[in-house]
Amino acid sequence: MSQERAASASAVPLEELGSWPEELCRRELPTVLPRLLISFASVYQHSDSWIEHIQILKTIVQMFLPHMNHLTLEQTFFSQVLPKTVKLFDDMMYELTNQARELTSQNLEIQSTLRNILQTMVQLLGALTGCVQHVCATQESIILENIQSLPSSVLHVIKSTFVHCKTFSRLSSRRPILFRSS
User: Fold this and answer.
1) Collapsing DSSP states into helix, strand and coil, what is residue 131?
2) How far apart are CA 53 and CA 170, in angstroms?
3) What HEC string does the chain produce?
4) CA torsion, points 128, 123, 45, 43, in degrees to nearest 10?
5) 108-157, pLDDT tens digit by residue?
6) Mean of the per-residue pLDDT values of the chain
């Protein structure tokens, strides 16, 4: 690939990556993945936008994870993204818990906020599910060392969701959606 083409591939807006064909994702993985990981880390450090985090995560999982080398998943992707994703989930759970405590049937603003948080959490769970499905669908043998961040991250999310849903199930009938998704 020429330097000009490599530069243009790394400058593609996130929204456009979602429409790339599979072969282009495979070919541009070495150029685009580092940019996406830098964007993810930058958003993590400098932004409170959960949506932005999840958009980057979903793009990586849906478009580029299928083309990553199974032997290097941990070092190239999981170890860099999953700890931040778990922290993001914990932040959302904290906000959900705080908002749920103030919920009354008359407070439409808090109901809307809770709905938005839950929808965002379900998207995050979808991205984690994509990671698990990818590893499970692999025809090759996977050594736990090559995916060590994935099981601990998934178990943390499941446990946190269960504890939260058990504690706050009386407050909202929508909460079981989160537990079923996790």
Assistant:
1) helix
2) 30
3) CCHHHHHHHHCCCHHHHCCCCHHHHHHHHHHHHHHHHHHHHHHHHHCCCHHHHHHHHHHHHHHHHHHCCHHHHHHHHHHHHHHHHHHHHHHHHHHHHHHHHCCCCCCHHHHHHHHHHHHHHHHHHHHHHHHHHHHHHCCCCCCHHHCCHHHHHHHHHHHHHHHHHHHHCCCCCCHHHHHHHC
4) 110
5) 888 888 889 989 999 999 999 999 999 999 878 888 888 999 999 999 99
6) 83
1-43 pLDDT tens trace: 434 443 444 467 878 888 899 999 999 999 999 999 999 988 8
To the nearest 5 percent, what fractions of the chain are helix, strand and coil?
80, 0, 20
